[in-house]
Amino acid sequence: MCIYINTTKKLRRLRRLNATARQQLRSTFSTYAVNNIINMKRLITLPVGLFLTVIALAQDTTTVDGPWKYSGMASINFSQVSLTNWSQGGESSYAINGLSAINLNYSEGKNSWDNSLDIGYGVQKIGERNPAKTDDHLELLSKYGRKITGNWFLSGLLNFKTQFTEGYKETETGRVVISDFISPGYVLLSIGMEYKKDDSFFVILAPISGKVTIVTNDSLSNVGSFGVEPGNKSRSEFGGTIKIGVNKDLMENVNFSSTLDLFSNYFNNPQNIDISWKALLNMKINKYLSANISTHLMYDNDIASVDTDGNPGGPKVQFKEILGVGFSYKF
Fold this sequence. Notes:
Outer membrane phospholipase (ompla), Chain C, 12-stranded antiparallel barrel, alpha+beta
């Protein structure tokens, strides 16, 4: 009887210890998860909110009304890797990336007005490292044309580009902020001629162009990032612009779109041409699944590179490529 009582007490103590250990484990896991969720939330709340709004608007407005034509696509891609006591090495990771492109065009008589919104945002987390962006862009384009003869239009263009959240450079001493919302922000206003055969191809030649670079983040403007004078928040340039756009269905369920932007400052090193070349290949697998490849090549003589210690260097060719498979909705 005494042995039974002692054994029962030991079992009760063991259960209490196991319950305490389980509670501590749950608490540790919850803290870890909450911290990661908070970090991820800070990065993706605004872009995802806008992205879902764009999808909602797109799904609600799918009809063509008279001279207006409305089209676009949206896709969300996920990836996840989980490793536990994996002898071959590696790190757990997860990532999400979203793309959306919307076009709203007007054409009647000699008047043509094309508008497009292009947004993208991606974030990934690898192991114990901080979440990092893989994509972050917001671009709004509006161009008006008045037909003069044949496929030629007298054209005016307004283009705005920026990003959603802060961008960081990992250095030996920690993370350094190298970009932010409207840091930089680019506003381009151009007047010239446009050759437009149909909605699949256009070329704009604009010898009168004004470009404004905006840096609202104090820490970046104070050191003269993106070509602004230290302490100033903007920089104005006057020059010429060439813009080429392609949007073509290569075959059923396969669409290719690309834009090439060239800008030369007439009064400051006109031979140093700013280049921005974006391309997107979207392949529809079925009604809700797709694969897409997007690339962006950029060169700007006013954007200094940053080394691993956070020190600025000379301008360099920048290139980004994203391959994704996931949910897609085309309208």
